[in-house]
Specification:
By secondary structure, the chain is mainly beta. It contains one helix and eight strands. The strands form two sheets. Strands 1-6-7-8-5-2 form a six-stranded antiparallel β-sheet, with no helix packed on it.
Length: 163
C-alpha cells in the first residue's frame, strides 16, 4: 500500500537529565488543545549516508572502495503554534537548546491516521535548533515553530519476513 506524506508524523519525548554531564531534562510537549494530537505536523531529515574513499592503484581503471561509518543527518520537526498548549513549552525550551535530549519517534499512520506499529525511533537526540514562531501582519497563515535534533543512532528495528 502506498503512503502519503500526510501519514508520516513525529513525536518527541524528553530524556531524563544527566546533571553530571551538564544535560537538563526538557519539557514535555502537551497535546494540542484544538484536536488533542501529540504529533508534529512535519518531519524531515534523518538521511543515512557513509563517506567512502576511492583508491586507485597505479594503472588501475577501477578503484578499491574503502568504507567509513554511517552517519544520520539532523531531524527537524515542525508544529503549528497553539498558544494554549505550546506557550509554556517554548518558554522553557528556548533556554536549553544544546543542553537537552529527546527521543524522536517517526510513525507511519494508516489511512485512518491511526498508529499501525510502523515506526522509526531515534534515541537520545540532542536539541540543536529552535526556529521560533513567525509573524506577518498581512497573512492569515498559521504560525509554526520547528525543532532540530542531532542524531547519533537509530534504534534497532524488528525485522519481519518478506515471504
Amino acid at each position: 500500500m502506498k503512503t502519503t506524506q500526510r501519514q508520516i508524523v513525529a513525536e518527541i519525548a524528553p530524556v531524563p537529565a544527566n546533571e553530571q554531564a551538564g544535560h537538563r531534562q526538557g519539557p514535555s510537549v502537551l497535546p494540542s488543545t484544538v484536536n488533542g494530537t501529540k504529533y508534529f505536523a512535519t518531519v524531515s531529515g534523518g538521511e543515512i549516508s557513509a563517506a567512502v574513499e576511492k583508491i586507485y592503484d597505479g594503472n588501475s581503471k577501477f578503484p578499491d572502495v574503502l568504507c567509513a561509518p554511517a552517519e544520520i543527518g539532523d531531524i527537524t520537526v515542525s508544529k503549528f503554534y497553539d498558544e494554549n498548549s505550546d506557550k509554556d513549552f517554548l518558554n522553557q525550551i528556548r533556554q536549553i537548546v544544546g543542553q537537552t535530549y529527546y527521543d524522536v519517534t517517526i510513525y507511519t499512520l494508516n489511512c485512518d491516521l491511526e498508529e499501525n506499529d510502523s515506526m522509526r525511533n531515534y534515541p537520545r537526540c540532542l536539541l540543536v535548533g529552535l526556529s521560533d514562531i513567525d509573524g506577518d501582519a498581512s497573512s492569515g497563515a498559521p504560525s509554526a515553530f520547528s525543532l532540530t535534533f542531532a542524531v547519533s543512532q537509530l534504534a534497532p528495528a524488528e525485522l519481519t519476513s518478506l515471504a
